[in-house]
């Protein structure tokens, strides 16, 4: 997958994830000679992993709603999406022979759900357009006169400064797939402002199960029996101390140390920021989202004769298994016999979260190169000719296809900007 040339490249891309590949595509389309370097033996490893659970390429919702997923960055990302939004990305995929469909949640997937055929077709098209791939080259930073230092299989190697450079080095999640955030050092030295990298779309560790308790986390018995199991359907409600609110129905998974999964990821930015500010985040679970409070109280109060409480909850409300176990994690024996307390807890079971899981385990990364130190072409103001794209930039979004769309859209913008810049240097 590697070729070499002693000629300086006109344009160089470092990072062969979706952002870097898109930048390379735009550079090649503009007629530039493009060399792409990546630390790993092959490109697009995270993209391929994303395809394991069904590649969620983008989302079909209206543009306005789509933009709002980027929260305070919505406005800054608008010009990227003007280049490549959900419908445009579907069309782009169709150009590679990959048809897509809209799932029941509005998420968009390739018809076969996989990432590998798309990546294969994309690489073929890039090679045909003249993009040359240099694998196993980990960028270390700059040498004199803008030359680029790489750790390569044969040792350290220096590549002459290209006319334009696109860095698309990813965030810091799943470092085993290539992106480890080590770019922060050289970029800070080059004058880039970098917001601290934080976990996004991540799981959490549980704090004390009861207010004031010294011990944190689930009971050993609970972990042994339930870790890895989903809680569903459930409504997660979070009311932050600074007024931010989240409420949604879905499902999540119990882990050995806390919680993770789609519903938790959706709330994770708020939960993470709450913990950073106040030391913990308190959320509530509605274990019976399809019953109102009065119904739950009436059922709990209903005389149960000789039946046990567990049997009663199961037959009257369908509470059993993991949901029942959750009750016993937060209520003691006396509390669970208190019908009002029990009914209240079924509708508002408190969970205290103590910490977000490390960024290495997260689906994505928040923080990164601040957009304020880039121009509208995503060129570093302090370092003309150097462009940045993808998850290494300071934006975040929930899962739902927004991460790939914004990564690729920013790659498009940076690639076009770099092409124009390189041409001006010629
Ligand atoms: C389990 C999982 C599932 C996901 N599923 C989805 C999904 O379904 N939909 C969605 O929208 N998003 C999903 N994502 C997120 C999505 O994959 C990322 O947001 C996206 O890959 C970011 O693209 P990128 O090009 O910016 O970075 P990356 O994909 O991380 O690519 C960066 C590239 O740069 C290379 N690199 C890094 N540092 C160096 C260096 N110093 N020198 C040379 N090369 C370097 C890396 O090897 C890598 O190839 C998922 C993520 C995970 C972890």
UniProtKB/TrEMBL annotation:
It comes from the Bacteria. Residues 10-416 form the RsdA/BaiN/AoA(So)-like Rossmann fold-like domain. Residues 218-364 form the RsdA/BaiN/AoA(So)-like insert domain. Its cofactor is FAD. This is TIGR03862 family flavoprotein. Pfam families: HI0933_like, HI0933_like_1st. Gene3D superfamilies: FAD/NAD(P)-binding domain, HI0933 insert domain-like, Translation factors. The keyword Flavoprotein applies. It comes from Roseateles flavus. Keywords: FAD, Flavoprotein.
